[in-house]
Design brief:
- A 7-stranded mixed β-sheet has the order 5-2-1-6-7-11-10, sandwiched between helices. A two-stranded antiparallel sheet has the order 3-4.
- A hairpin with a 5-residue loop joins strand 3 and strand 4.
- The chain is globular and about 65 Å long.
- By secondary structure, it is of the alpha/beta class.
- About 5% of the residues have low confidence.
- The protein contains 15 helices and 11 strands.
- The chain starts with 6 loop residues before the first strand and ends in a 10-residue tail after the last helix.
- Helix 13 packs antiparallel against helix 14.
């Protein structure tokens, strides 16, 4: 982790803000600061008010007008969702021209600008996503495509990064986005510590930072496949049959195989193998015996473990070298 850089995390509080959109990322950056990251947090108002009321009716105070800030490359800005009657109003874009102009300036300054849920609309109104990729809440896909035809909307992604622009699909995905950003800023080991602290399912590990299960294999919206992935990850020491997985996800084995490959880009067998490799490397690096590691990963022998690691890694751990 770089200790010589201070990152300023700015959180916008528009009127009728969705609480979890903004509270989730704020808490992750709070924990990052507790773990030694140099993070300054600032809470910005979209208007001249120093207070706003959330969509849930909670009063939020000590806000500062956005125009008081100029962002730099080491800075971040989170833009959460708000009630749809506001951003779908005919005069919304015209009423917030000053903010959109300011937002374009911060983008030119190379700050990381991040939307959560329908916060994507504010970035799109500013023209930031023209010719670029993003995602937003599934409920607004059709409207978003109609309003912003120059934007490439990805409907099957939890998180999309395009340059220094970031977007996430829905309310709770703002937490995932914050964790993703912490990994970018401070590395996978640090991000793993934060994930453990707030009890987020670990989608990345410090042992295999170049392989992101979070991005490559969990970055889809099919809850049935998420359930299968969770089942596999939590039962690596067991021999699970495809029929059992299919029954639990209310699909036929054939359909599960097809839908899994469609959503993740790999087969169930390859996904399970990668999970086993990831787990094996974790256990071996912590000093576990080879035979114990094999059993914990659902393998019958050290030879099977050696074969698996040879197939999916560039070099064998020292314990398995002949």
């Amino acid at each position: 982790m770089r200790n010589d850089i201070t990152h300023r995390a700015h959180f916008l509080f528009p009127p009728e803000v969705q609480l979890l959109d903004i509270a989730g990322p704020i808490h992750l950056f709070y924990e990052a600061n507790e773990y030694g990251a140099k993070v300054e947090t600032h809470y910005l108002s979209l208007r001249t008010k120093t207070e706003e009321i959330s969509s849930a009716g909670v009063l939020l105070g000590k806000l500062e007008p956005f125009w008081n800030f100029t962002l730099e490359p080491h800075d971040l800005l989170f833009i959460p969702g708000l009630e749809s009657h506001l951003f779908l109003a005919e005069d919304f874009k015209q009423k917030n021209q000053q903010f959109f102009s300011w937002l374009r300036e911060q983008y030119q300054n190379k700050a990381k600008i991040c939307s959560v849920c329908t916060g994507t609309y504010l970035m799109a109104f500013a023209g930031l996503f023209d010719g670029k990729s993003c995602t937003t809440h599934w409920k607004y896909f059709r409207d978003f495509k109609t309003r912003f035809p120059k934007v490439k909307l990805l409907s099957d992604r939890l998180i999309v990064k395009d340059g220094n622009l970031y977007s996430s699909a829905g309310v709770s995905s703002g937490i995932d986005l914050a964790l993703f950003l912490l990994e970018e800023l401070y590395g996978p080991v640090f991000a793993t510590k934060i994930a453990k602290e707030v009890v987020i399912y670990l989608r990345r590990t410090e042992n295999d930072p170049q392989l992101s299960v979070f991005l490559q294999y969990r970055n889809h919206m099919d809850n049935r496949i998420h359930l299968v992935q969770d089942t596999l990850a939590q039962n690596l020491d067991k021999k699970l049959k495809i029929e059992e997985l299919a029954e639990n996800s209310h699909m036929s084995p054939r359909n599960l195989t097809r839908v899994f490959k469609k959503n993740t880009g790999i087969t169930i067998g390859d996904y399970l193998a990668k999970l086993r490799v990831e787990r094996a490397l974790q256990l071996l690096s912590s000093g576990s015996k080879v035979n114990a590691v094999s059993l914990a990963c659902g393998l019958q022998s050290s030879n099977q473990l050696r074969f698996l690691l040879k197939k999916y890694t560039e070099s064998l751990p020292s314990q398995l070298r002949e």
